[in-house]
User: What shape does this take?
Amino acid sequence: MKTLRCDDSRVPRRLNEGSIARRRFLAAAGIAICGLPRPLLAEESPVKIDRVELFPVAYPTVGHFKFLSSPRGRSQRPAVIVKVTADNGVVGWGQSVPLPAWSYETLETSHIVLRDYLAPVLVGRDPLDIDGAHRALDRALAGSFSTGMPIARAGLDIALHDLEGRLTGKSLAQMLGQNSLPELTLSWTVNPPSLDAAEALVEDGLRRGYRHFNIKVAPDVDADVALARVVRRRIGDGFLWADANGGYEVAAALAAAPKLADAGVNVLEAPVKPNRLRGYQALKKLAAIPIYMDEGVVSPVELEEFIELGMLDGVAMKPSRCGGIAPARKQIELLVAKGLRWLGSGLTDPDISLAASLALYGAYRLEKPAALNGPQFLAFDILERPIEVVDGRSKIPTGPGLGIDVDEDKLRELVARSPRVG
Ligand SMILES: [Mg+2]
Assistant: This one.
């Protein structure tokens, strides 16, 4: 068994060898190059993970979204694309989506941790033992308050789920024992640089058929209330969701909650930083508006603690934030069991991570519009059949695993146009 480590200096050269050479390479690697993989049969010898390849990239973006600024001032969406290949040639794709303006994980640290610590422990393992893989990943990189480097880790988890689906011929919903929705309604993100720009951004969403909106707020309560009123005035009875990303102090959040509710906001997400436990308790007790957590909910363990401490009414779910599909699924089931609610959110997820989120939310029959804004802010994809949004709704890909196929020519192009990570 071996781990084939790819960086951006090797990948374009290999993929640039042309389609014939590429097919030869894929064939030599035992990778299926046409048709769907044959489902794994019970009498076959157990399949093992043969290798994990990593492709650090940066997706080009459109529009203004504060979390997409790079240290050099350019707007981009970094990601590490993960390709896990079993020793029978079947491939699963995943994606880690670090955003340094959102959490401490960066493209560079995610790539190094995946390459040198997490991916190697998967090689030689049974690809169908995803819970066992998570335990091995726990041993490879200790957590601090919760799971270590969860955004990086999510890329491996997503790839393992895709691989399991391709090996067994099941969609993600089938793997989870669920009956998926056919499509999801999405929410349009409004993050104006000033209040003057808000109306045009709302109009842009409405023109594209979106009916539900999420706004970025904090720390200025008066400006946030004014923004909420502008958006509510234009969207009728659409769902309006305010996300502070932990940006209020506790006193400001307590003042903002009733004012935002009065301005027509339906839920307030991440009003204060997640380590302000008493702040969340006070906000929930105030009951001015449903309080949802996002940042700080990583593993099901702390979610259970936060629920018992009376800190929240629900969680804005993101498999990319919490180490992948397996922990996210447990969190949704925990919330439902406790009578709490969940919303579908994301980290401006590109193609693969977007497909994983759609599949998870569809499987658990998400009721409210999902704030999956990758299609709104990203200008490139690497799929053979891109995920399309029509009138603010996205079909959930069907088929084994995530239901998507990566176009390796597009991947080569994205790697070539991305900054070098080494
Ligand atoms: Mg959020």
Q: What stands out?
A: The pocket of magnesium ion is lined by residues 243, 245, 269-270, 294, 316, 345 (CB under 6 Å). Residues 1-37 have pLDDT under 50 and may be disordered. The radius of gyration is 21 Å.
